[in-house]
Amino acid sequence: MNPPSFAPLTGPIGFYPVVPDAAWVRRLLGWGVRTIQLRIKADDFDAEEIAWEVRTAVAAGRDVPGAQVFINDHWQLALEAGAYGVHLGQEDLDTADITALRDAGLRLGLSTHTPAELARAKAVQPSYLAIGPIYPTTLKVMPYEPVGLERLKAWAQDAAPYPVVAIGGISLALVPGVMACGVDGVAVVSAVTLAPDPQEAALHGLRLANR
């Protein structure tokens, strides 16, 4: 018997920046971005600072109608803060209290890199599935080869009925081709945070990915 489903998303995913602190979350919400992930690098903050960042990001999302702010990895803090959602990796499925997250009404996004991981994630009945890395990325050491567009298209179909986010090495110039594979959203990391003009990059990303 399958477990109950996680709560569905309340809006489209579209353009989905992944950012390192709550200040970026607030900035992007102000620019009109509505789906954002806070991914804190533990090396950059101590435990108290991480808790503050999570609480601040959650509160910022709560103040903006239609915002879908996800907390990466720190699911206990997200749960305590009453977050909209959490994003977890495959290894987190072994340790996170999935039942507590689901019962609290949080949305859940899960990372997948292979067909086997996709099948495992689907069994949890999450709110969305992330597939990647689509292209080579230098921001994170990945033990997986890039998925590429051809496989992304096939895997996105296999992910049904769950919404799919593509992630990994995606510049703004690559967004249209990725969206054409039938995904529901495109996650970017450096395309906004390292852009010469982050606001213009965010607005351009919204035009490309939100339909």
Give your account of this protein's structure.
The chain has 211 residues and is an alpha/beta fold. It has one domain (14-209): Aldolase class I (TIM Barrel), CATH 3.20.20.70. It is built from 9 helices and 8 strands. The chain has helices spanning 22-30, 47-62, 75-81, 98-103, 115-123, 148-158, 175-179, 190-193, 198-209, and strands spanning 14-19, 35-38, 68-72, 85-88, 107-112, 128-131, 164-167, 185-188. Helix 1 (22-30) runs parallel beside helix 2 (47-62).
Biggest sheet strand order reads 1-2-3-4-5-6-7-8
- Find the count of extended strands (DSSP E, 2+ residues): 8
Question: What is the fold-level CATH name, i.e. the topology?
Answer: TIM Barrel
Helicity range of the residues? 25-40%
Radius of gyration: 16 Å
CATH superfamily: Aldolase class I
Principal-axis shape equals globular
Largest sheet: 8 strands, parallel, barrel
Going by helix content, strand content and strand pairing, the class is: alpha/beta
CATH architecture heading: Alpha-Beta Barrel
Could you tell me the strand content as a percent range? 15-25%
Number of domains: 1
